[in-house]
Amino acid sequence: MGADTGRRRIGYVNLPAQFEEERTEIMQAVEGVFQRGDFIGGAAVGKLEEELSAYLGSPHVVTLNSGTDALILALRALDIGPGDEVITPPNSFVASTAAIVAVGATPVFADVLPDQNIDPAAVEAAVTPRTKAIMPVHLTGRMADMGPLMAIADKHALAVIEDSAQAVGSTYDGRMSGTIGTFGCFSAHPLKNLNAAGDAGFLVTADAEMAARIRRLRNHGLINRSDVQEWGIVSRLDTLQAEVLRIRLRHLPPVIERRRRNATQYRAELAGLPLFIPPCRNIEFNTFHTFVVQTDRRNDFQKYLADKGIETAIHYPVPIHLQPAAAHLGQGRGAFPVTERQADQILTLPINQFLSAADISYICAIAREYFA
Ligand SMILES: *Cc1c(COP(=O)(O)O)cnc(C)c1O
């Protein structure tokens, strides 16, 4: 409060600051990998899987090359392919839908709620005899409404693939994101809360056989050094990335705490402004991968913030059903009105763990100045 509103520069992310905090640990780990030369399949990969398993409370963790591959391999393990439908929201990062298309299945969109997450009633309405799975996305780090979604899945005998790419460590009703459905798929892309130094991802499941099958699929489908029963791909996590992620998994709880603290400060200092911020629910623990506000003056507000040195982003400006690549699905403008309206109203404010209370106060003071 009472922050000085003199111009400063506030970046959306701050990866160099993260490196400075971890320089010694990271450089030692990198040196170890180069000295051993165990670039693929090093011991760190298995150790990371055990540590993630303990953190998430899930019996099987399979590390992979990306969050997108996690989604694709979960679909493959469920034998979902041509003729099958998977219900997913049209306002995610394009990878969720792209994974469904990649296995030859048909994405069926269900519109979202004011909090940007998939609307269980719209999911129920989208179920057909061809539906095989629901793929909810925990957008922004806020969990989709898993209670009703799991009830719909049970009723229609559908698998649930949680796209937890933005929600590592988030919980719903005391359960970790990714561990409620059949699969939880995570990304460790450099811009995610648990971030590697390049592409990386992993999936979790309670099903030992599916986990074993995905371990084969990520390594050419090989069952030993020379035999292949079904064709796979190459989607192993590099040892270097595993080392980086082992270090960063240890630092994840304070990262999440700092983001939550920033969110609490935003809520307090933006209160009363004409900005919609989804209210916290008692049953959730939100890890705030992003902090999104909604306003019908979005473009003008974004420009005002940019002029004051505040970098913001839009996640995502073009709904997936309106992407040129989605034309074959035949869903034009007007098909998903909530998603379409939000695409014009959402603005992601900086919330990274390196922002100080003074930085957040500055952003909020500029916002109050704009709406005054
Ligand atoms: C980042 C992201 C993905 C894809 O993860 P990659 O590791 O970049 O492949 C999938 N879904 C959502 C919602 C994401 O935010």
What can you see in these coordinates?
This protein is 40% helix and 12% strand. The protein is of the alpha/beta class. The strands form three sheets. A seven-stranded mixed sheet has the order 1-9-8-5-4-2-3, with helices on both faces. The chain has a three-stranded antiparallel sheet with strand order 7-6-10, with no helix packed on it. A two-stranded antiparallel ribbon has the order 11-12. Strand 4 (131-134), helix 6 (146-156) and strand 5 form a beta-alpha-beta unit. The longest helix has 32 residues, at 239-270. The model has no long low-confidence stretch (mean pLDDT 96). Bound molecules: pyridoxal-5'-phosphate (PLP).
Brief descriptors of the model:
Aspartate Aminotransferase, domain 1, 11 helices, 372 residues, globular, binds pyridoxal-5'-phosphate, Aspartate Aminotransferase, domain 2, 7-stranded mixed sheet
Outline of the structure:
It is an enzyme of class 2 (transferase). Belongs to the DegT/DnrJ/EryC1 family. By secondary structure, the chain is an alpha/beta fold.
Please describe the topology of this protein:
Blueprint (H helix, E strand, L loop, with lengths): L14 H22 L6 H14 L3 E5 L2 H11 L7 E4 L6 H8 L3 E4 L10 H7 L4 E4 L11 H11 L2 E5 L7 E2 L2 E2 L6 E5 L13 E5 L2 H10 L21 H32 L13 E2 L5 E4 L3 H10 L29 H9 E4 L7 H15 L1
Parallel strand pairs: 2-3, 2-4, 4-5, 5-8
Antiparallel strand pairs: 1-9, 6-7, 6-10, 8-9, 11-12
Helix pairs in contact: 1-8, 2-8, 3-4, 3-7, 8-11
The structure holds pyridoxal-5'-phosphate.
